[in-house]
Design a protein that fits this description.
Elements (H helix, E strand, L loop, with lengths): L3 H16 L7 H7 L4 H12 L3 H19 L4 H7 L5 H12 L3 H6 L1
């Protein structure tokens, strides 16, 4: 049974991540932003969301990138950086794993 306080803190964190996914986020910052330890964050997040906080953040970034690919003409590397990725090759690797195609292919779909 997960306490409602923990759920409220996770809701606050997910809201913060959704509104600022392009910023630098690591586990200590995430835990601090909702007032819990890193271990509690990892355990609670996994139990509720069924993925780690970093997996959740990466999915937010990739979904934002997918929308930008479909709705604009910005180069892939610029989209990667705009969505919080510091390496366009790493972005492309994550994108392929998540969407099963390259960012350029996705744009043409």
């Amino acid at each position: 049974h997960i306490q409602s306080t923990a759920l409220a803190r996770l809701a606050l964190l997910t809201s913060r991540l959704e509104s600022s996914f392009q910023e630098e986020w690591d586990l200590p910052r995430m835990a601090k932003s909702c007032g819990i330890s890193v271990n509690t964050l990892l355990r609670t997040f996994q139990n509720v969301v069924h993925q780690t906080p970093l997996q959740y953040l990466t999915a937010l970034r990739l979904n934002a990138a997918a929308a930008m690919l479909k709705n604009g003409t910005m180069p892939v590397s610029e989209i990667a950086f705009a969505c919080g990725f510091h390496d366009s090759n790493y972005f492309s690797k994550c994108f392929r794993k998540h969407f099963h195609c390259t960012p350029s292919s996705y744009r043409r779909l």
